[in-house]
Each structure stands twice: as C-alpha cells, then as structure tokens.
Design brief:
- By secondary structure, the chain is mainly α.
- The chain has a domain of 146 residues.
- It is built from nine helices and two strands; from the N terminus they run H-H-H-H-E-E-H-H-H-H-H.
- Strands 1-2 form a two-stranded antiparallel ribbon.
- The model has no long low-confidence stretch (mean pLDDT 80).
C-alpha cells in the first residue's frame, strides 16, 4: 500500500459518507414522494416491486421502470446520480447473469458471435430479466432515498415486523456510518504522519492493525451503545416526535398505486 493507495482509501470513505449525507438530504427535499405518509410509500412501493417480479411481459416492466423515473423526477432526485449508483450497477450485475441465456435458450437464431448463435427467445429472456431487476431496484431505491431511515423503520413496525428485526436494522445503519467515519479518521491520521512509501511488510502490518483496531472499537462501542440505549428505555420500538397521519395526498397516492399495480398486473400477464 503506497501513499497513493491510502489517499484513495480516504477518498473512498469520504465518498461513502457523502453518499449517506446525500441520501438523508434527499429524504427531506420536499418532493412528491417525500410528502407522502411512510406507510403509504412502503406498502405501495413493495406492491410495485412484487408486481415487477411477477410480470412476464417486457412492456409492463418497462412501464414500471418509466413510472420509477417519473417518480424520481417528481421527488427532485438526480437522474444522473440514479444512473451511476443504481441503474448502471444493476445493469452490469444482471447482464452477467443474463448473458448465458442469449446462447443457451433454444429458438430462432438472429446473430452469431464466435460460432455461438444468439436466439430471439434468449434475447427476450435476457431483456426481461434486466428490465425486471432495473424496475425493482429503482422502486426500492426511491423508497429509501425519499424516506428518513427512522420513519421507514417505524412504518415497518406498523406492518407488524418483529421488534428484533427493527432493532437490528437500526443498529446496522448506525454502525455502518459510525465505523466508516472511524476508519476514515484512522486512515487520515496515518496519511498525515507518513513520509515516503511503505514496503509490502509494512502494508500488511498496517491493514492487520487497522482491522484489529476497528474490531476492538466495534465490540467496545457496541456494548456502550447497548447499555446507553437500555438506560434510555429503548426496547426496539421506534418512537418519533410526530405521529403518522393520512392526509388527502396520501389517499390520492393510494389510488394512484392501486391503478398502477392493476395496469401492470393486466399488462404483465
């Protein structure tokens, strides 16, 4: 690990923290989805995701993807950021899984690559899988980016999700951010005190020491946070200063979700 690699590591942690901050800011942006009751968003988005997973026709899934893009625009989210963080990543991952279907699915050959025939049926299956994943990931991301984390956890609790699951999600989210901040501070401290380059032995020692310190901090901090939360009465229930209340816009959103789901189900048969 050279000084350049340490600098890249620090920048990587900084970008991760920046993305977390952007996600929190987008949840309070005052857009279309941000103004809805979290329970309505949770149920509506989950229903759309399930519909996308069960649809068997490409137009239905493209319609759901288009709906997700429209909701992102209405919620004042950056489409460029969505493309980099969501769409391109989902496409690359899904394309690797769907690629064998192009050649292995029996059907009418439409193109040949190094002696392997791409069939029309295989191309259709690959496109269906990619569109399904893109639609589901887009809708799920919209739910997370437009809802404060604690509001989302409380909405899950109203759907009778076990307290243990809620507590686990809450602690995981907090620890990911906290440990990222700690690791970033450790690498910045190391970088500020380093002169020249590290040899391979020092590189390995640095990584082992960093991992050991993070593990030690995790165990100590976990015990301290657990005791502090218990002392303040936390038993897994998420309590907010404001209660969830359905308003006119929420009822309109329920109708909109119902119409979109119905159309997608009919078109996806």
């Amino acid at each position: 690990m050279s000084a350049g690699v340490i600098s890249k590591t620090v920048r990587g942690f900084s970008r991760a923290l920046g993305r977390t901050l952007v996600s929190e800011n987008s949840a309070h942006a005052g857009g279309l989805l941000q103004g809805l009751d979290p329970r309505v968003k949770l149920i509506g988005m989950l229903a759309l995701v399930v519909t996308a997973a069960l649809s068997r026709r490409l137009p239905a899934m493209l319609g759901l993807l288009g709906l997700g893009v429209a909701l992102a625009l209405g919620s004042r989210l950056s489409l460029w950021s969505m493309a980099k963080r969501v769409w391109l990543v989902a496409f690359a991952f899904t394309a690797m899984i769907a690629a064998p279907a192009l050649f292995l699915t029996p059907g009418t050959a439409v193109y040949s690559v190094i002696g392997l025939a791409i069939t029309a049926q295989g191309a259709r299956s690959a496109l269906l899988l990619i569109a399904r994943v893109e639609a589901a990931v887009t809708l799920s991301t919209l739910l997370v980016l437009t809802t404060p984390w604690m509001h989302l956890l409380k909405a899950l609790r109203t759907l009778m999700v076990p307290v243990e699951v809620i507590a686990l999600l809450a602690m995981t989210h907090r620890y990911v951010v906290l440990l990222t901040e700690t690791a970033n501070a450790m690498f910045e401290s190391r970088q500020s005190r380093m002169v020249g380059r590290l040899n391979r032995r020092e590189q390995r020692r640095l990584m082992v020491n960093t991992g050991g310190v993070l593990l030690s901090k995790t165990m100590e901090l976990g015990n301290e946070v657990f005791l502090a939360m218990q002392a303040r009465g936390f038993r897994g229930e998420v309590r907010l200063l404001t209660d969830f209340r359905l308003r006119t816009r929420d009822y309109l959103a329920i109708c909109g979700f119902a119409v979109a789901i119905t159309v997608a189900v009919v078109a996806g048969r």
